[in-house]
Specification:
heterotrimer; A alpha/beta (about 450); B alpha+beta (about 120); C alpha/beta (about 525); A: about 450 residues; alpha/beta; Aspartate Aminotransferase, domain 1; 2 domains; seven-stranded mixed sheet; four-stranded antiparallel sheet; B: OB fold (Dihydrolipoamide Acetyltransferase, E2P); six-stranded antiparallel sheet; three-stranded antiparallel sheet; 9 strands; about 20% helix; about 35% strand
Chain lengths: ~450, ~120, ~525
Amino acid sequence: MRYLPLSQSDRHEMLATIGVSHINDLFKDVPKSALLKEPVDLPNHKSEMEVDREMRALAGKNIPAGSVPFFCGAGAYRHYVPSTVDHLIQRGEFLTAYTPYQPEISQGTLQALYEFQSQVAQITGMEVSNASMYDGSTACGEAVLMARRVSRKKKAILSGSLHPQYIEVVKTVTKFTDDVAVFNPVDTYAVDDLIAQIDDETSCVVVQNPDFFGNIQDFSKLAEALHEKNALLIVVVTEIVSLGAVRSPGSMGADIVVGEGQSIGNGLSFGGPYVGLFATRQKYVRTMPGRVCGQTVDADGKRGFVLTLSTREQHIRREKATSNICTNAGLCTLAFTIHMTLLGEKGFRHLAHLNHAKAVMLADKLSHIKGVKVLNKSFFNEFTISLPIDAAYAIEKMAEAKILGGVPLSRLYPDHENLKNQMLVAVTETVTEADMDLFVSELKEWVKC
Amino acid sequence: MTIYYSEEHEWVSVEGDIGTIGITDYAQNALGDIVFVEVPEVGSDHDKGDEVAVVESVKAASEIYAPIGGEVIEINESLEFEPAMVNEHAESDAWFYKIKITDLEELDDLMDTKAYKAFIANLD
Amino acid sequence: MLNNQGRQTDVGTASQQTSNNFTTHSGNRGLEQDELLIYEIGDTKRTGVDLEEVWDFEPRLGGVTRDNEIGLAGLTEPETMRHYTRLSRKNYAIDMGLYPLGSCTMKHNPRLNEKVARLPGLGDIHPLQPISTVQGALEVMDNLAHWLKTLTGMPAVAMSPKAGAHGELCGLMAIRAALDKRGENRSIILAPESAHGTNPATATLCGYKVKSIPANKQGRVDLDALKSALTPDVAAIMLTNPNTCGLFERDIIEIAKAVHSIGGYFYCDGANFNAIVGKVRPGDLGVDAMHINLHKTFSTPHGGGGPGAGPVVLSKALEPFAPVPYVIHGDHGFELVEHISDKGDSKDSFGRMTAFHGQMGMNIRALAFMMSHGADGLARVAEDSVLNANYILASLKDVMTASFEGPCMHECLFDDRFLHGTGVATLDFAKAMIDEGYHPMTMYFPLVVHGAMLIEPTESESKQSVDQFIGSLRHLVTEAKAGNKELFSGAPYLAPLRRLDETLAARSPILRWSKPENE
């Protein structure tokens, strides 16, 4: 077995040193009835080449996004990741290191985390960031719980245009606590309704920008209304590239910004692993969940970095911890940071501008199709269109023609008959004008009949 | 002014019905370098034994239980920025909060200076 | 003419300088190079990407346009490569040496797994593509589910939890949902005092109070204490097996029966599954739910702290309460149940734990690891990891103090009694291991012994490697007992940095770079 270095004679020698004759003597504490006499009913070991072949066969049954004109988004976006990123994160010193609990021999991971936290704080317009959460949706759940700790109130109000799966995650994490979550109907421009719902029990309002349907808004007024009631504004950003072109949530008065960072540095990977971003105000840092890295000095006075404020965390605080989270998105944050460093201010702004330009181009092309309507007043790189027919059907048919044309709203809102003909269309820098034209001509075909 | 001590290593200095509360020098020494102190909110009411504050060192967080009940009338705001004060002046400048004591009889359960000294001598 | 050109080939003039007090102009020490932050190297004008020019167009941002500079520092590609390569060299890693972190299972990460996870057909697919275009991805999830169910002897598995602690949350929520369905409002979770911190933190998130169960002298749950704590108010017991002392819970079947007899459930923390994979099926022990850290037993890389993955196997009793989404076999191939519907099987599901379908990238790696080992190889994994740990225990217990009698499982626990009177604490001892070229073992966990040192070598180590490690530890014990305190109190001496001031970091947290004020 290529992964197991002990030889048969090593094993005998070692058993002799231990003073037992058979390996099962070391399993003597296992109840006899439970120790398997025979191997479990699964195939035996395989060579690297065989496994490689079988995995390729499985891969061959999918349509990779990069092989076709591709327009899916809804919280996961396909961007071009420079080759340098994947090369660097596969360096064994990054890939095969544990959580940096021993800072003297983990400065690589720690300094990269410090750079990550700095970048996230900058782009969200917040003062501090943690070292990441599992993904955007779980970060959103954590933000709601944190708002309760900060405000000491337990009613969270969720916008109806928040990503529906994020809403479900909040529903789950508040299910067995005494938190109260208020869920609003799907309506993008209901900010005034949200303001009207704020009362003395309110801990926070959660909004998304651009929202699930792609619309962009300024939430400054909502922030003011919340702060008057000592409640928090939580802004969710699922397409982090948008912050290269759109005003930051921090500048609107957000108290917590959570985001999905997958767009930078990370591939689609069928939904995970991704990078949960979590940024807040300095004054709330001790109620923030998750790991955080901070600057300090070593015994010789040299600058270095350590994991800090760990008394908030489960391994010390146990049942009183701010969260039960233990891992972070480690390697995915590193990919984020390397990609963001390659972009820099100039590249990040340019990338955002390019995404928006391409989305505008496709929106204009689509709006010329008879029966197709672009529903957004504003958008960044994703917008909602309505068709005269079932959107899921149109998308399925386009997939048969090797075009992945977007996400039907019915996939996420199966019970909303009124959204059945609507779909989300995302356009990133990876889409060419030729891709757009193929999409438009194919969609025309299906809309006609 | 009389000073009382609890077995959880808090001190209460009493003047009239006003009590000033902190942790003892013995406690700060046992906790090590203190990095953060969370004090209760002014106006909050606590019964004896309620969790009122948290003291964090790098490796541990310890809850502080009210040695005596009452309403919090003042907190030591400088602890937020200078937690190290607790290590340096635990039983003077680094007091945590002041209360209006509800029931002065609760003081009877606490120790005086001599008894506390004997108590910690026994611990070592 | 004599040619006296060319380089000298002897070792040069002997010098009194030693490597310890040698200083350089740059601050670098040969291959060990200091590295500034990106903000101190790059600037907002530099970039490492070339993007196509943008044409003139009318923006549709609704007027919510960013008008301030963000301040992001950029680097060109060669600068980026050098920056992060230099940083990487300041890390210890499995690829460099034995990584004996107890309860973390730092084993070799095969690169085949990295390769297959990056196949376009697996890495470059969108979670919301039409189901007809991702049949292979669903098959991967289904295959992995089959392996996990077979290895654990459990009928169901929830694939979406994104890490071990997320898996714990999944398991406890399924238990809570099952009790709610029975109309029972129980409030207590029992957990041994040696439990990992995530256990009580998770129980709190599910609205439960944790009651601690003491250990007996053999480092295992005290069965009598457990039985007397089993009141009708107990929802479940959370038990790690093998436990955090590296020991198999001998009474586990009886524990399960006792918990079931009062109508409670048995949650098993599967963090230490590596010791028994292919040898013991948790389903045969009476477990109702158990998370499996794919990043431990099945070798998906730890990546400096994540990402992990924590699928949860479930008993028949808990299966109906599993979270969405999950894969089913439909009429036209694999299907994904993404919503809770009043009619279907998902009607009792407790909900959704994350957007999309979980850690697919980790699933692929874990499946490749399992297929490579097979049923025969996985049992070998358990045996070799247990053998390596017991060999270390046997080779050190004459000089270090083992906390418990008898063989251990895949990790061995020592406490600090052997250091009494030396003036060397567990922390110092561990830091001295860094100078010997090793990552320290897990320290001060579990909390049930004083100054704990938990050593887990994993099956990836050769005998030669383990022997060298044992040699280093024996040497350090000798030095500690000989009174060479300085070797420990100042350690590490040979790492990129000396010990760091964690007090300073926590008292005045600096959590991000900011532009210096004089600029």
